[in-house]
Write a structure and sequence with these properties.
By secondary structure, the chain is an alpha+beta fold. The chain is built from 16 helices and nine strands.
């Protein structure tokens, strides 16, 4: 068994051709055609267990590889890996691998589910004390009649510190428009087995009961970056309202993670990251506000046309931002900082980093709940700005709950978790509707559409009192819920 550390960068075909022509990293070490067959059970039990199983053929050699994902990889692809040569395309499942333990009697149901065919160009790069294998893979992942194109650079550390991967990655990014890659080839294949996604919602972060606070932060931040990049990929090809919304959510979640885990974070980079995330979120927010209004506006007429034109212009700004070096660098810088930034070794925060994540979780969630309780009192009599503050605090409590809930896994706590999140969702929905009402006049004023006859229906507050009452009821319901971390 070995531990591999990789950094993945994605690029388009034109950039890949330019990279090959540039001879940027010296002479080519090898060029191979490779085909890999991935296996799983009919109910995809390996995938659900965080395990991938493939047999790859290169020339006359077939190699079976099993990888087990590491939830706390913090943006790097770091996995436990088992490799062995095999005689044919039949997987070898025995006590030398974790497969038999994971599947038991079901190991006999393993069958091919998708294939990966790529041309692989390889370079070996030695720099100081580091040795890095750089490969360019171009080809396809195919499952049935569906395909996904592959064009990516993989930087695998053979010797040295992970920082060397980022030094090379940044040198490449300075010359070619590469982006942080967050999807493995096996994940591409599994995606082809499911209905195509319009957008990617946040997934609950899986943490072990023994995780340290540092482990938890690394896993949470990596999850946020992954969610952002998945939705960014969609937005780079189409102006999709839901993908934009989820990309914006991922940025808010990451900013909340910086706040929630503040006791263990040290270093001057954090204000910069917060500022950049806030800027990018505001660019997405302009388009999001218009998506919300357009969804409520009656089609036809000057108002709808004006909102539609403004939305198109806002998405041009989104496209410009996502296509910028600034955004590409932000995701790579964040990943570098998570993997090997000063926060991991600062003496001033060592005790906080090493402390059990469960302790931080209980203390943090308790404090956030108290804040919601305090700010939400007399919700019905609060001004719009004050209700917005309640909404932001409730949102942070929701994110913290989703980040840290898996640290309390027993059945009783899981039931409490579900009810607690359900009450939070209801409160957020009502407060979100109220915030949309409060935001609409500002957006229409900025566009010069406030006096349009059609604006009256968008600004009507006939249901406002009912929504406020529903928000107050949801607030009371939340405070009545038993906590899952107590």
């Amino acid at each position: 068994m070995s531990k591999e550390v990789e950094l993945k960068l994605v690029l388009d075909a034109a950039a890949a051709d330019a990279f090959v022509r540039s001879d940027r990293v010296g002479g080519l070490t090898s060029k191979r055609q490779m085909q890999a067959v991935y296996f799983d059970t009919p109910d995809l039990a390996l995938s659900r267990g965080g395990v991938s199983l493939r047999i790859r053929q290169s020339g006359d050699t077939r190699t079976q590889t099993i990888k087990v994902a590491d939830a706390a990889a913090a943006g790097l692809f770091a996995r436990s890996e088992w490799e062995m040569e095999v005689a044919d395309t039949t997987p070898v499942v025995d006590d030398r691998t974790p497969i038999s333990t994971l599947l038991g009697d079901r190991a006999g149901t393993i069958a091919p589910i998708f294939t990966v065919v790529v041309e692989r160009l390889t370079w070996m790069i030695d720099s100081g004390e580091a040795s890095i294998e750089l490969v360019l893979d171009r080809g396809t992942v195919a499952a049935g009649d569906r395909q996904s194109l592959v064009c990516e650079l993989e930087l695998e550390l053979k010797r040295g510190a992970p920082a060397a991967l980022f030094t090379l990655a940044k040198a490449l990014a300075a010359q070619f428009p590469v982006r942080l890659g967050v999807v493995t080839k096996s994940e591409r294949g599994y995606d082809l087995l499911r209905p195509a996604s319009r957008a990617f919602k946040a997934e609950r972060v899986a943490l072990t009961r023994t995780a340290s606070a540092a482990d938890a932060f690394a896993a949470v931040a990596a999850s946020c970056i992954g969610q952002y990049r998945l939705n960014e990929t969609i937005l780079l090809t189409q102006a999709d309202a839901e993908a934009l919304h989820q990309a914006r959510v991922s940025l808010r979640r990451l900013r909340s993670a910086f706040s929630i885990f503040k006791p263990l974070l040290d270093g001057g980079e954090i204000p910069h990251f917060q500022s950049e995330l806030r800027w990018l979120g505001s660019v997405l927010g302009e388009a999001r506000d218009l998506d919300v209004l357009l969804a409520k506006a009656k089609p036809g007429g000057l108002l709808f046309e004006g909102l539609n034109q403004a939305r198109d212009a806002a998405y041009v700004e989104v496209d410009n931002a996502l296509g910028s070096d600034r955004v590409r660098a932000l995701m790579l810088d964040l990943t570098e900082w998570l993997a090997c930034g000063a926060w991991r070794t600062a003496q001033s925060t060592r005790d906080a980093r090493d402390a059990p994540a469960r302790h931080l979780a209980a203390e943090t969630l308790r404090a956030l709940r108290r804040r919601v309780s305090k700010r939400g009192r007399s919700l019905q009599s609060l001004a719009d700005e004050e209700r917005h503050e309640v909404r932001k605090t409730a949102k942070r409590l929701r994110y913290g709950t989703e980040f840290l809930g898996s640290l309390f896994p027993n059945k009783k706590r899981s039931r409490r978790y579900g009810k607690f999140v359900g009450s939070l969702e209801k409160l957020q929905d009502q407060l979100g509707a109220l915030n949309d009402m409060a935001t609409a006049p500002t957006v229409l004023d900025r566009l010069g559409l406030r006096d349009d006859p059609g604006a009256k229906s968008l600004l009507a507050h006939r249901k406002k009192s009912k929504i406020i009452d529903a928000a107050a009821e949801a607030y009371d319901d939340l405070l009545d819920r038993k906590t899952f971390w107590g």
